[in-house]
Amino acid sequence: MIVQALKNIKLLKNEIPRYLILGVWLLINLIAFLVVYFSFHNSLKYFYLRKIVQDGISWSRASAFCINLNAAIILLLVCRNSITYLRSFMCCSPNVVRVIDKHVSFHRYAAYLIFFFTIIHTIGHVHNVENFVEAKNAKFKPFEKNTNQEDLSGLFSTLSLLNKRPNGTFLNPVDTENAVPVFEVFKLLAGVSGIIMCLSLSLLASTSSENIRKSFYNLFWYSHQILVTVFYIFLLIHGAEQVVKHQTNTKTHNPQQCYLIYSEWPVKTETKQCDIPEFEGFTPVSWIWVLPSIILYLLERLIRFIRSLRKFKLARYIKHPSNVIELQIDKMNRIKYRAGQYVFLNLSEISFFEWHPFTITSAPDDQYLSVHIRCTGDWTSKLSSKIEQEKSIGFSVDGPFGSCAEDVFKYETVVLIGAGIGVTPYASILKHIWYILSTSHQNTATLQKVYFFWVSSTIDSFEWFGSLLQDLENSIKRSNRPDLLDYRIYLTRGWSLKQAKEIAINNDQEYDLFTGLSQKTNYEYRFNLLLG
């Protein structure tokens, strides 16, 4: 029990930077919300607006600020080229690099915050519209000083009629008596654009779930591209009508002193001056927040488009068992990558817009770039069929991009764990180690020990990866680093009764029956025992 608790503490320690940054970001959002909330709650400029809509304006404006804040950061978290530059070319500690690698998770967190603050913003403005309608329906009557209860219906009526004065400014956007709040929403640009943004966010949330991403990736991808574009377009124009007003002449009309004598406006005495209040729209600021992020993101998309124009020839196509295909693409010295990185592939003959990520399985020393793909989805199945029909095709390649796997050479001891086709990131790493050991330099820099665990459910997977392990095993035996690699292979199922008998007979042989390696395959796995 104590040992397990200590292990959990160690695991938690690795995640502290991520939770710390998330906590700081939540705190920034909370502080920003409170600052904006109380600025609207206490500001003299919004006194009359608060009298009509109460604190609905404070809630809606504070949440709007937080929406802008998160909308500005969310696009930056999916700018892959910039993130790859940060993790590869800046002197970052391993903890910082691990945090950078969580950028997609932070992207989701920002999306959750946008959705949360949108709910608050929407509720706040629904409350505001209803109060604007009630203020428009209020009847004018002089204020009675001797009454015990403050009746501001006359004030509301006076404020709602300001726009009918010559050159007058208005505070209440509702100009129809006995109006229906829902209809008034559709009369406002802010209302229509807000409804469209809410619908976009709802559809984005429903099509971004894990089940949709795995089962209907095309639906997720296309909806993301379209709905995010719609959201940002309407976010930029949402405040253009300037429905939210503030008073501009508080020096000649102090609302705290003048609001009870609304029936006498304008008033100018030795002790009091109450001119007709004048109002001005709240200047939209969303574009200031999101425009830099949009520009950077569009530059990223432009880079992707330029890369899509470059075609890389398919040098070799290999079909492996378990519905796995290997593509070897002639990189022609135009792609430089490190072991453990990944690329996005596009085949315009299938879809011009679809890009799919695949881990690079070749080493930087190879003259080609290879990926191993399990054909289980629509795009991968079409890809396999297309290649079999037409061998000479050209791919567009976007990348390479960084991942945590490329950092293995920064540590003295690393543990690599892969399952099934998920072993692909380590193919490039192990092959790169093999190249290093095969040269006269025989130097793996910091790396001193590699523990490699591979769990597979089928024997067929051993064919393409087993040959790599054989080469690496032979290379290590010939080098002066025979203890560099310690590997364990586990087969969980997929053998017949005949093969089970052969396994038992082969148990005393020097090399494994399936892999041809000196290290025998295990037929169960217990990592908690192996890793202590």
3D structure, described in words:
The protein has 532 residues and is an alpha+beta fold. The chain has helices at residues 2-42, 47-53, 56-74, 80-89, 94-100, 103-137, 153-160, 181-187, 189-207, 210-215, 217-237, 255-258, 286-308, 378-389, 424-438, 462-478, 497-506, 527-530, and strands at 245-247, 267-268, 273-274, 279-281, 312-320, 324-330, 342-346, 356-359, 368-374, 394-401, 413-419, 449-456, 485-491. It contains 18 helices and 13 strands. It has a six-stranded antiparallel beta sheet. Helix 16 links the parallel strand 12 and strand 13 (485-491). The protein starts with a helix and ends with a helix.
Number of strands: 13
Parts with pLDDT < 50 across at least 5 consecutive residues: 525-532
- Rough outline: elongated
* First and last CA, distance: 14 Å
Helix and strand content put the structural class at alpha+beta
Task: Report the total helices.
Answer: 18
* Computed Rg: 33 Å
What is the helical fraction, as a range of percent? Answer: 40-55%
| Share of β-strand residues | 5-15%
Give me the side-by-side strand order of the main sheet. Answer: 8-7-10-5-6-9
Largest beta-sheet details: 6 strands, antiparallel
Mean pLDDT: 80
Comma- or semicolon-separated keywords:
single chain; 532 residues; alpha+beta; six-stranded antiparallel sheet; three-stranded parallel sheet; 18 helices; 13 strands; elongated; disordered C terminus
Chain-wise SSE layout:
Layout: H1 2-42, H2 47-53, H3 56-74, H4 80-89, H5 94-100, H6 103-137, H7 153-160, H8 181-187, H9 189-207, H10 210-215, H11 217-237, E1 245-247, H12 255-258, E2 267-268, E3 273-274, E4 279-281, H13 286-308, E5 312-320, E6 324-330, E7 342-346, E8 356-359, E9 368-374, H14 378-389, E10 394-401, E11 413-419, H15 424-438, E12 449-456, H16 462-478, E13 485-491, H17 497-506, H18 527-530
Parallel strand pairs: 11-12, 12-13
Antiparallel strand pairs: 1-4, 2-3, 5-6, 5-10, 6-9, 7-8, 7-10
